[in-house]
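[job 4471] stage=fold_predict status=RUNNING
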Amino acid sequence: MQFSSTKPTNTYIRVPLASFAANYISEGGFCAIFVEFLDSSFDDSKAIILGGMFFQSIYAQYTFEGVNDVEVTLFKNLNALPSTYVGS
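[job 4471] inference complete, writing structure tokens
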């Protein structure tokens, strides 16, 4: 994922697909990858939701800058999978 910002550098995040894998009991205990296909022709595919599996590798720091202004900074967790990266 790549993010644009008002700062001079663009930031991107690389999270290994294994971060979204788990033993899925409903599928007989097989490994399931919890990632959904996004299709821009559907309104609910125009945004992504990053949940708990993502936040096992990345953590967020929120800084309140005013009444309606919040800055979010993302960092790599110490126990993240080896190829996890946050940077420019």
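[job 4471] summary: The chain has a mean pLDDT of 82.
[job 4471] exit 0
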